[in-house]
Amino acid sequence: MPTADPEFSQHDNAALASAVRALRNGQVIACPTEAVWGLSCDPHSDAALAQLMRMKARDPAKGVIVVAASIAQFEPWLKDLPYALYAPLLTSWPGPVTWLVPDNGTAPALVRGDHDCVALRVTDHPGMQALCEAFGGPLVSTSANRAGEPPAMSAAEARAIFGTQSGAELGAVVAGPLGGRTRPSQIRDLASGRMLRA
Questions:
Q1: pTM: predicted TM-score of the whole model, two decimal places
Q2: Is residue 83 part of a domain?
Q3: d(CA 39, CA 138)
Q4: What is the total count of domains within the chain?
Q5: pLDDT 10s digit of each residue in the chain, 198 long?
Q6: Which residues does 36 contact at the CB level (< 8 Å), separation at least 6?
Q7: What is d(CA 85, CA 76) in angstroms, rounded to the nearest whole number?
Q8: Secondary structure of the chain in the HEC alphabet?
Q9: Full domain range(s) for residue 82
Q10: 29 in a domain, yes or no?
């Protein structure tokens, strides 16, 4: 069962710890991101990923984006990556560029979807950075909406979409501001440099 619904600022260590406990218990949380409110979970929890797909009514074939506080947190995901491919990562992270990185076997099936790459980004959003640091690793980050609907822009909207009345409870709702961006991150293919979302 989901835990209580703590709200916290990035400076509230007790509430941050409560949200991290929810993540470690295989729950989905709602949190502010760079441009919209998002849903996050442990990318290595099959139960959490399955719940996330159900909550969003998302096609599992699409996969999801994984964010980290630093490139060091992505070390297992980047193992065996050719050295030449590191340069674009180092010059664009942290920042609003999501790279499709060849999967080395680290990405669970529901993270990768029907792709041979995994979508990775080192976030520059302070709240997401704090969450990833407290959790001790990367987190799934996807917009807080049902498939085909507009994303939540506030905690209240996230609760209205995913609260108990809709049958899908959130483990926590993280208080804090959005990052001030007006559009989602770019998505680029690391091997070719091709831009898939401007």
A1: 0.90
A2: yes
A3: 13
A4: 1
A5: 333 334 444 446 776 888 899 999 999 999 999 999 999 999 999 999 999 999 999 999 999 999 999 999 999 999 999 989 999 999 999 999 999 999 999 999 999 999 999 999 999 999 999 999 999 999 999 999 999 999 999 999 999 999 754 455 799 988 889 998 988 789 999 999 889 876
A6: 143, 144, 151, 152, 153, 178, 184
A7: 15
A8: CCCCCCCCCCCCHHHHHHHHHHHHCCCCEEEECCCCEEEEECCCCHHHHHHHHHHHCCCHHHCCEEEECCHHHHHHHHCCCCHHHHHHHHHHCCCCEEEEEECCCCCCHHHHCCCCEEEEEECCCHHHHHHHHHHCCCEEEEECCCCCCCCCCCHHHHHHHHCHHHCCCCCEECCCCCCCCCCCCEEEECCCCCEEEC
A9: 13-191
A10: yes
Place of tokens 């441009």: 35
User: For residue 197, is it within any domain?
Assistant: no
- Reading the block at residue 23, the tokens are 């993540």
